[in-house]
Amino acid sequence: MLKKVISVGAKWVNGKWVKSAATETVETTSTAFQKGKVYTKMKFATNPIAKEVTHTRLPEGMLPEEMTMVNIRKLFNDRYKTMRYGDETKLRSATPEQVSKFYSSIKSESKGILIDDEVDWIYRKPSSITDRIQSFSVIPKERVSMNINAEPELISALDRYIANGEVFVNGKVIKTVKPPKAYYKVDTSLEEAGSFWIRTDPITMYFRDPATPEQLSDIAQITRQFSCSTPVNFPSGALKGANWLSHAKEHSPEDLYQLYKRALKIDPKLAEAIEVKVTKSGYGRLAGVDYGKEMPYIERYRYRISEGQYQAIESVVNDYKRALGKTGLDAIF
Predict the structure, then answer these.
(1) Whether 42 contacts 24, CB under 8 Å
(2) Domain range annotation of the chain
(3) Average pLDDT over residues 188-193
(4) How far apart are CA 39 and CA 297, in angstroms?
(5) How far apart are the two ends of the chain, measured CA to CA in Å?
(6) What residues form DSSP beta bridges with 173?
(7) How far is residue 36 from each of residues 33, 90, 107, 220, measured CA to CA in Å?
(8) Nearest to 238 by CA among 259, 223, 254
(9) Residues 6+ positions from 323 with CB-CB distance below 8 Å
(10) Distance CA 80, CA 90 (A)
(11) How far apart are CA 43 and CA 64, in angstroms?
């Protein structure tokens, strides 16, 4: 197929490359799909230097140079929904009686356990943790996400582990260890079409210190009998030997800021999309960290978002950079 384009070439003048541009007719190859990406190759016949330019689309099919900041923000949201909900197929179910008992168990007080009700989530934490979880005053180091069923007995078992260090399996304590510095949250959207039934991780445990191999083994033992038989694809990958669990680092506000700075070097509109996403989405700031009144909000403060949101944004930044298709000769210009 013939197509008129503005071609960018180069001439060697006085010991250096000098850009030159001209309108010419080129022949393009047919578009070919490979692993969800589109590659269009063009070879210029009249330029002094034969040059091949590769344009790579994002997996969703868009060219970065054609996207607006609004398009990029929408892609952040779409990626997050895919990571957390997949195709929204129902992963788990329960009888009305089971649902009622499970809801009662996540709302009920338990010895050594404090409860934070955060609208769509219930946080259950050992009484040794006295700060309000959602204040962001203390950032957890790691998390274990659980593809798990709505079983009341699970709540009791997790409570016993974080409060007393009891590894409670099949109705008995098989060992007692030092309690981890950890708490967990449960999705409370238990109506028939609620998110508990379709999200990959309706229960997540957070660790104040990096989780040890022994602690990960304990969690696997405790949760095995309650695991969901429908497999899910965790963004961070399943825990080895326990495919219903995912173990991942929890990113800090500073990590998010560095991701923003990286995006700024790739494309200003990509960075702007992150800034608007973070500052306009109702996320809390890390109290007391102020880097100067004259700076943009995302630079003046350090924001924190959920790990799932961070992973979605990071995946877009990575794919966006690859899709720009810069070549070595492009860098010279």
Answers:
(1) no
(2) 2-56, 69-82+252-329, 88-232
(3) 92
(4) 38
(5) 28
(6) 168
(7) 6, 26, 44, 35
(8) 223
(9) 37, 56, 57, 58, 63, 64
(10) 17
(11) 21
Query: Got the DSSP string for 57-117?
Result: --TTS--GGG--HHHHHHHHHHHHHHHHHTT--------HHHHHHHHHHHHS-BTTEEEEE
β-bridge partners, 169: 172
Q: Mean pLDDT of all residues in the chain?
A: 81
Rg over CA atoms, the chain: 25
What separation in angstroms does the CA of 151 have from each of 29, 98, 100, 223? 57, 7, 10, 10
Q: Are strands 113-118 and 242-249 parallel, antiparallel or unpaired?
A: unpaired
| Per-residue pLDDT, 325 | 63
- Pairing status of strand 166-169 against strand 182-187: unpaired
Q: Which DSSP category does 149 fall into?
A: -
Identify each DSSP E strand in the chain by its residue range: 2-13, 16-28, 32-34, 37-43, 52-56, 113-118, 121-126, 142-146, 166-169, 172-176, 182-187, 203-207, 238-239, 242-249
Amino acid, single-letter form, for residue 207: F
Considering only the C-alpha atoms of the chain, give the largest distance between any 2 of them, rounded to a whole number of Å. Answer: 84
Q: What is the pLDDT of residues 11-63, one digit of tens each?
A: 444 444 445 555 444 444 333 334 444 444 433 444 444 444 456 889 999 99
What pLDDT, on a 0 to 100 scale, did the predictor assign at position 306? Answer: 83
3-class secondary-structure state, position 165: coil
The predicted-structure confidence for 194-212, as pLDDT tens digits, reads as follows 999 999 999 999 999 999 9
Q: Once rounded to an integer, what is the mean pLDDT over residues 160-176?
A: 95
3-state SS record for 223-264: HHHHECCCCCCCCCCEECCEEEEEEEECCCHHHHHHHHHHHH
Pair of tokens at residue 16: 């250096």
pLDDT at 140 over 60: yes
Name the least confident of 66-70, 240-244, 268-272, 284-288.
284-288
Structure tokens at 271: 């960075």
pTM: 0.75
